[in-house]
Amino acid sequence: GPGRRLLLSTPIFYANGPPHLGHLYSALLADALHRQRGLRGAGPGRFSTGTDEHGLKIQQAAAEAGTSPPELCARVSALFRQALTQAAVSFTDFIRTSEPRHQRAVCHFWGALQERGALYKGSYEGWYCTPDECFLPESQLAERTDSQGRTYKVSSETGHEVHWTKEENYMFRLSAFRDPLQKWLRDNPRAVFPNPFYQRVLHWLGDDLPDLSVSRERSRLQWGIPVPGDSTQTIYVWVDALVNYLSVVGYPETHGEWWPAAHHVVGKDILKFHAVYWPALLMAVGLPPPEQILVHSHWTVRGQKMSKSLGNVIDPSACIGQYTVDGFRYFLLRQGVPERDCDYYDEKVVKVLNSELADALGGLLNRSTALSINPSNTYPYFSESCFPKILDYRETKALGRASAEDYEFVVSVASLPLQVASYFEDFQIYKALECIALCVRQTNGFFQRHRPWKLNRNHPAEKLWLDTIIHVTLECLRVFGTLLQPVIPCTADKLLSRLAVEPEERGLSNLTFLPRYNGKPCPFEGRQLGSDTGILFHRLEKS
Ligand code: ME8
């Protein structure tokens, strides 16, 4: 409802390497949701992102780079901040897990776990996967053979090698939370979204849920937060990282204003951490689980997994240089489908952007605002005599000049705002964009089939119809521009400014399409249009 607070988050990204396409995709999904909420006037919202800076992975990356972990983290964290800012990701909070405010929150959280009896000290033995920073049960391992014929074990999910490891650890009583987790999910069928991921989590909870090792021996892992009161142990990086969602809202002091109104956007690779461990940890300290976990799949590049060794890692900054900020945002959100993996290749970007942004949307704006058909450069008047309101337009013989096809088209654009809102609600931004693209095509069809450039402005009856055609087209463009703001903020601004739509008229909650068709006044009629007649989106060269 209105006035509701909400915290939207991205994962915090490992500070062991520069940002890539996948990181940006997560951030863009969250950004589009956050911007859309703001435009809806949905209430105070925060949008957090940041970097995950502790753990063996970072320690090793620093050693490889011949530097110290703090130095590496400062450098990589700045790269993330820069990449996200460049991509117009409108985060309100950026957290680094090496910050004192976060360390304080983690220590407090640990204390709360201990106080409530959720931790015990145990000796732990098992297959440990360093790159994934977790112990894995036999059921999640696979055997591999290297070129020398040596067999070794890997995580079947990530393919990373595991080693038999034995150590004294603090253990978290995760097993005690199997029933509460199942109940939480049953009571909240949208807690993990989209549904296939919800099913996956339920399936996991059908199996045994062993206790979780939540600390590492300090001798093996120095780069991390020491266990309060036991300096021989370091807090497990995932406990440390997950608590970031509380430290951004000021845990342990001011989180109450925000928690549990949190929506976490995460990749499917870290679903278990967010949908099993995190809610259990929260329950263990007496806090409710987050409201929603929004899960997306992965991008591959020309059919292959992105990896440093394949040299196919896509650098967001280079793509933005090539396709512009809005171009790249549009492509990723238009083509990325949360439920399944998506494949990236440059030819596809060029094709989508040229056809949908440059030709269809840009072309429509260009043609409908051309001075040759609208010499006064004003928002023209709608004439009811040309386009009278008819509900049963399929039955009735057209009274004005509009055809049954035109009525169908107007009805479909009129339903667009609600449709788009519901797709955003369902984390299907690609579908929202697909609907908008379809309506843009229909509007082009409408404009084209009436050949307004053939109408004579000096002939009174033809002028009414000409102005009505342009009015309807500009109304469509106004709706598209308003709805596209969360995805392509800069292009939408250009479009809306060209249509003389004032900043306070750009909200989503009071968006009405073609009010004159419904007998309501249209505040835009007669208004002088914007003066920037530049190209909305430049066509890209085939790469
Ligand atoms: O896992 N396609 O950080 P991380 C789409 N620090 N998204 C991708 C992707 C791809 N190919 N590759 C990565 C971590 N991502 C932890 C998170 S949160 C408390 C701690 C995205 O740097 C996706 O969202 O490995 C994935 O979950 C995230 O980046 C992992 O980033």
Quick overview:
It is built from 17 helices and 18 strands. With 543 residues, the chain is of the alpha/beta class.
Task: Give a description of the structure.
The protein is elongated, with a radius of gyration of 27 Å. The protein has a six-stranded parallel sheet, sandwiched between helices. Strands 5-4-8-10 form a four-stranded antiparallel sheet, with no helix packed on it. The model has no long low-confidence stretch (mean pLDDT about 95). It starts with 5 loop residues before the first strand and ends in a 45-residue tail after the last helix. Helices cover about 40% and strands about 15% of the residues. The chain is of the alpha/beta class and about 550 residues long. Ligand ME8 binds next to strand 1, helix 1, helix 7 and strand 14.
Task: Give the structural class.
Answer: alpha/beta
The stretches of 5 or more residues where confidence is low (pLDDT under 50) are: none
Which of globular, elongated, flat, extended, rod-shaped describes the shape? elongated
Secondary structure: helix percent = 40-55%
CA radius of gyration is 27 Å
Mean pLDDT: 95
Strand-residue proportion: 15-25%
User: How many helices does DSSP assign?
Assistant: 17
What is the topology, as strand order, of the major beta sheet?
A: 3-2-1-14-15-9
| Total beta strand runs | 18
What bound compounds does this protein have?
A: ligand ME8
Distance from first to last alpha carbon: 46 Å
Main sheet specs: 6 strands, parallel
